[in-house]
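# step 3/5: fold
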Amino acid sequence: MNCDPNLDLVQFVDGDCEVAPDWLEKATGEILCRFEPGSRVRKAARAQTPALSVYNRLCDIEWNSPIGIAAACGGDALMRAQALSEVGGYNSDLIAGEEPDLCLRLRQRNQRILRIDAEMTLHDANITRFGQWWRRTNPERSCLRRRIHAASP
C-alpha cells in the first residue's frame, strides 16, 4: 500500500492455496458494486483434497461457513486497502490467530466481513496425522486470542 496510495483492494492468499479462476471477477464485483467503500472482507475456501484424510475433511467442514455476514475470515481474503490501513493491518506479534484478531478490530470500527457465494481458493491443508491437526486446532491459540482481546467490547 506504500507503493500505490490509490490501491483500493488487496487479495491475500495463503502459500498452500490456489485461487479459483473466476474469484477475482466475482469478488471485486461484489465488493465494489454491492457495498459502500471501506468496509469489507470477502472469504470462501474449500479443502483441495478433503478425501485424503479425516483431518482434511474436518478442515473442509470448518471452512464451509454460511454465506453472509461473518465474525471473521481466514488467511485468504479480499479486503479494502483503506479498511486494512485504518486498523493497522495484521498484528505481527501473533504467531497464530491473526485473522480473527484483524477481523475483530475491523468490526470494532463498524466494518463488516462478508462471505459471498463464490469459491475463492482451494487450500492444500495436507493434514494426515493427528499431531498436525492438534497443532492447528490447539486450544492455546484460542486462549491467546482471548487474552489479547480481554478488554475488547
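# step 4/5: annotate
Residues 36-43 have pLDDT under 50 and may be disordered.
# step 5/5: archive (pending)
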